[in-house]
Model the fold of this input.
Amino acid sequence: MNNSRLVDLVAGQSFLEDAFVRWVLASAATRDIARHIVPQHKVNVEDHQYRLDFLLQGATRRVAVELDGYEFHSDKKAFVYDRIRQNDLTGLGYTVLRFSYDAIRSHTARCVSQLQAVLRSDSALAAYVVKDPIVPVPDDMDGNALWLATPASRRPSAQVSYFESVRKRFDMRPLRDCQREAMVALANYYRRGGLNAACVMSVGAGKTALGVASALAFARTRSLVITPGRVIRGTFATALDPGTAGNVLYTLRGGALIPGCRAPKTKILDSSEGSIRSVTREALLDAEVIVTNFHSINAASDREDLLEKLRPDDIDLIVIDEAHMAAAHTYQRLLTHFPKARRLLMSACFSRADGKKISADVVYRYRLIDSVADGHAKHLRAHRFTPQVEQTRYEILWPNGKREDIVGKEALLSVMEDESRLARITATSEEPINHVMQIVRQCLALQTHRLSPVRPRVLFSALGQRHAEQISRIANSHGIACASLHHSMGDAAIAATRTRFEHESGSLQAIVQLKMLGQGYDLPAISIVVPMRPYGSFGEFYQFVGRGIRIIHHPQLTASQQQHLDLIYHGELGLDDHLETLRVENDMDPHPADDDAFGDPPVPDRTDGGRGGVHVPDAVVLAEYGDSHQQLLHGIDRVEARREERELNALAQKYAAYAATTPNPRSFDDFVAVVRSTHG
Done:
């Protein structure tokens, strides 16, 4: 049986069956007992046929293991049926052992002892009994943590809400480990009466799936999902659409999230389905999940906005994605309007561009290095282009025709603190862009070789339209098929350009975008990101880098194949501090605020090439030809050390629970060895 664990050799067909194998059987017996186990064994009794959860076939004993969950065996009819069934099995010579969810979860050691007593009574099965078993306290039997957080009502079954029916069948196994951990943390938080929860989840960790799972698991009557813009709103719309291949409800890689349940009735606002102003209150109340963006909620009362059509008790769960983007007065009004609703704020980074603080209770953190270690994020490889010369000449051309000279790196860095001056800066040499393109070309060739047959893409950022067009022109001269993307293009041109870039059959390898493909944009094939502009806030920089951080899943790319995201940047753009913050990840959490929930709204950014009624000339930032330096942001040794650190910390928590419930606990080292070899 090679080196497989018992949990790998004996597969259950339900959460509870898997829990029995992992926490009871694996502690009671060695893995070789698997040859005596038959899952879902059929037994015929007269005109009845029963299906045993597990049959343990010994030399003289046949042990029928029956597992009782919450949703079955709970009413009078089921009670009678179970007794008749057990008597039939006993009459056929079976030894029947019954384990309930509560027994496995709260009395694990007693369950192990009971099973071992029966195994010892058979000469064949006794050979596999573990002499001095270590019995960890289950830490993942929280399939019913959702029930604990949101208890079922006492209404007749005909009046059970959609969300109650979903919680009966909700299966967290298809979720990633980090998403399951976040769900359990949220359940514990809401169960204690908390309302204002935050999850800090690395880019690429799967916040959309967490948001959908939470919207289904913790609501009672209706969920409201708020996003900062169309891109993320569209992502949630896809995730909740059962007719789309990328939906979260049924097509996660591990299986269906809500097996045996219909999809929630979902209303997507401000889309092709209609404007918020045209939707009726009746249409909103008919939905179980409402998805919109914050533009549908005005900072002040408006008869046509969303809050005027919903009453305080119409919504009891609010999911806010990219919560660091929250506009203060709008979100204050939202939370005030639904004062008793549970809230989930999600973001990879709660650092706001305006420096204001966000108040929330962080219940779960999942860092970028954890995402890399778990195989959800690419390794980040940074290439820094450093000019060889100390002094570089720039000029700022003001609207009145006045020119301002900028000489040297320090002067340039001071300009970067002032967006109005930065937007007007120009330089005449294209040599540094050519040098950056040489690095891009080298990285693209390497990525193309390693990711075949997937076609890697390059994402550039720029300052203005003319700058974007210049970068695109130079990229094409280096053999990189590239186009620019900006809001001044028509909708048809934008759609056509994105299709050429995003589809595997498309003709573009690269896009130079102006604040369009930001937070929430999901194209894992982006394998090279090139910021050709400075970023005033870490959050904005992290969101740009995050567009390429997600792992590419493809049948011909093995899970063990290491994937990299190449970040190519100019040393004079002032991005080194942001990279260091990303390295140590010390600016990710929301901080308690003394004044309000979200602070004041950010100052509008006017580096948009002249839109918004403010004249801003196009800008080009260049520097002299120099050297480039390459480094991994999180080295392999550090990633592995972090993985080991997380595992040991998790095992220490399990050991504490084990030692607190065991009169004569074994050593921590023994415990770690057993858990790793039997439970994983």
Summary: The two ends are 17 Å apart (CA to CA). Residues 123 and 136 are 27 Å apart (CA to CA).
